[in-house]
C-alpha cells in the first residue's frame, strides 16, 4: 500500500536526455532537482524533508487540495543590484514547486510544517481509520447474555 507518491513532469524528459547525452557523467547535461526530498515513516507519522537552502520561510507556500500537497518556494537573487558582479552562479534561482499525492491513509487535515537550517520538514499523521486495530470476536453465548441482560 503506497502512502505517498511524488510526480515530476520532467522525469521522462530527464530520462530521455540522459540517454541522448550519455548519462550523468561530467560534462553532460542533467537538470538538477532544486528541491530534493526525503520521505519516510516513523511510527504513526509520515515525514517529508525538503532541502531549501537560501530560501526564507516567507518565500515558502504549502497548499493541500483534496489529496494533493503542493510545496512552492522561491530562491531570490542576492541583494545589491547592479553593484554585485557574479563570478559563479550554480544555484538555481526562481520559483520551484513539488507536488505530492497523499494516499487516503494519511490525515491531510493535521499536517505540521517546520523550517530550520534550510530544511522544510512536514509531519503527516497516519489517519486513524488506517491504523491497525483489534477486533473483538463474539460468540453465540456472549450474544445470548447480552440479550437477556
UniProtKB/TrEMBL annotation:
InterPro entries: A-crystallin/Hsp20_dom, HSP20-like_chaperone, Small_HSP. Residues 28-140 form the SHSP domain. PROSITE patterns: SHSP. Belongs to the small heat shock protein (HSP20) family. PANTHER family: HEAT-SHOCK PROTEIN 20 FAMILY MEMBER. This is HSP20 family protein. It comes from Actinopolymorpha pittospori.
Amino acid at each position: 500500500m503506497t502512502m505517498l507518491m511524488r510526480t515530476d513532469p520532467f522525469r521522462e524528459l530527464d530520462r530521455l536526455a540522459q540517454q541522448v547525452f550519455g548519462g550523468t557523467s561530467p560534462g553532460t547535461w542533467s537538470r538538477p532537482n532544486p528541491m530534493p526530498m526525503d520521505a519516510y515513516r516513523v511510527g504513526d507519522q509520515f515525514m517529508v524533508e525538503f532541502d531549501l537552502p537560501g530560501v526564507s520561510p516567507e518565500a515558502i507556500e504549502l497548499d493541500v487540495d483534496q489529496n494533493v500537497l503542493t510545496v512552492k518556494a522561491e530562491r531570490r537573487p542576492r541583494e545589491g543590484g547592479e553593484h554585485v558582479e557574479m563570478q559563479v552562479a550554480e544555484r538555481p534561482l526562481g520559483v520551484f514547486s513539488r507536488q505530492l499525492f497523499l494516499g487516503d491513509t494519511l490525515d491531510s487535515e493535521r499536517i505540521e510544517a517546520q523550517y530550520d537550517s534550510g530544511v522544510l520538514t512536514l509531519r503527516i499523521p497516519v489517519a486513524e481509520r488506517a491504523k491497525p486495530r483489534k477486533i473483538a470476536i463474539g460468540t453465540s453465548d456472549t450474544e445470548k447474555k447480552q440479550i437477556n441482560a
